[in-house]
Prior knowledge:
Structural class: alpha+beta
Largest sheet: 6 strands, antiparallel
Distance between the termini: 87 Å
Amino acid sequence: MKMISNFHNKLVMAGAMLAVCTTFAQAHQEAAAPVAGLNPLADKVRAANSRFLDVKAATSEGYAPIPCASGITGGAMGIHYVNGGYLKDDKIDIARPEAVMYEPMADGRLQLVAVEYITSKGPASLDGQLFNFNSAPNRYGLGEFYELHVWAWRGNPTGTFADMNPKVSCEHTMAPSQ
Length: 178
């Protein structure tokens, strides 16, 4: 009976130690998450394009808005401000994204959330990150193209380079004034 009691005590002690170690490991992971979640390309994109925090910078550089894009399963991309000249030149330049993306806010402001690089030449990559291929026909009415979203200003739980972001909404899009 004493042997069973000792075994039971050791088992309880081992379980307690495992729980403590697991708690410490989880706390360490949560504390390290922001550091581990940093993406060097997103950092470079943010540094090269922070001038677009004010949408006036986008319009002054020839970007024009297209309607807010929402996903059919939730999330959104926001309102794309697209530069037609950059779309046509097929060049990939970190400081000249083809589209700058804004989320419409309840107070009417537009908040910069991401940029998008687009080219018809591929396969394409930026700083080692491969672009996504979009075949034709597609929902945009374009020919085949390669695109890369970079969620540099809004975290995206589905990934820094995913198309849609569940943390972005088109809910506050203003109707065009008549």
